[in-house]
Structure formats: C-alpha cells, structure tokens
Amino acid sequence: MHISRSDWRDESQKLSIALFAAVHAAPQSSGTTPVPILSENSNLQPDGSFQFAFQSGDGVQVQNQGTLKEIEVQKADGSGTEKEQVIVQSGSYSYQAPDGQQITVTYTADENGFHPQGAHLPVANANGQ
C-alpha cells in the first residue's frame, strides 16, 4: 500500500486537528472569554515532511513534526514483502490541569504505534503491566 502525498497531507492535517482538539478537550474554566492564539506556524515541504506548532493564551503549547518513511511489510497473501510509506511523527503538547499541575506529553508515532511519555503517565513494569 502506497500513501500518496495528498493522502498523507490529509492525514497529517487530521492528526494536527485531532491533537488540537485533544488538548482543548482538557477541562477548562467556565468563563466565556475566548482564548487567543498567540502563535501558529505550519510548514509543509514537497518531500512530505512537515512542522506544526501553536501556543494559545491559556498556556497550551503544541508542536509536531513528521516525515515519510519507507518500510517493508508482509504482503497480504503472504508471498513476500513490499515497500510501503508510513508517516513518522514526533512532538509534544502541554497544558495546565485544573489542579494547577503543568501537564506535558512528548510522543513519537510510527509504524509501531503511538508512544507517549509524561511525568503524569503510568509506566509499565518489566512485565508490561
């Protein structure tokens, strides 16, 4: 399966929107004052790599970058392997929790899944629990 550049752009935009939505889904104050966007940068290169970042007036910060990576995968019929492109991303997001704690998550996302890290997240032991 090959991902076209336009499909990749669509998927990276969807991920960026999903990250933005996830960060803003965190509990917020009951005030009705709009939160200003202090900065926003987006850079999409012809080779498919990209960078995205924004900071809002309530302290939310998001940054994300990605590239296309070619990997070999098993053919569906089991007759060997074929090359496929995947999106490899890394980044972080942070916000202030209702209790005042600053929450920061750094992550990578690749052919092996989404891998978040943060001081507030539980860590699996050697048995994977």
From TrEMBL:
GO terms for molecular function: structural constituent of chitin-based larval cuticle. InterPro entries: CHIT_BIND_RR_consensus (IPR031311), Cuticle_Struct_Prot (IPR050468), Insect_cuticle (IPR000618). It comes from the Eukaryota. Keywords: Cuticle. The keyword Electron transport does not apply. Pfam families: Chitin_bind_4. GO terms for cellular component: chitin-based extracellular matrix. PROSITE patterns: CHIT_BIND_RR_1, CHIT_BIND_RR_2. This is Endocuticle structural glycoprotein ABD-4. The lineage of its organism: Eukaryota, Metazoa, Ecdysozoa, Arthropoda, Hexapoda.
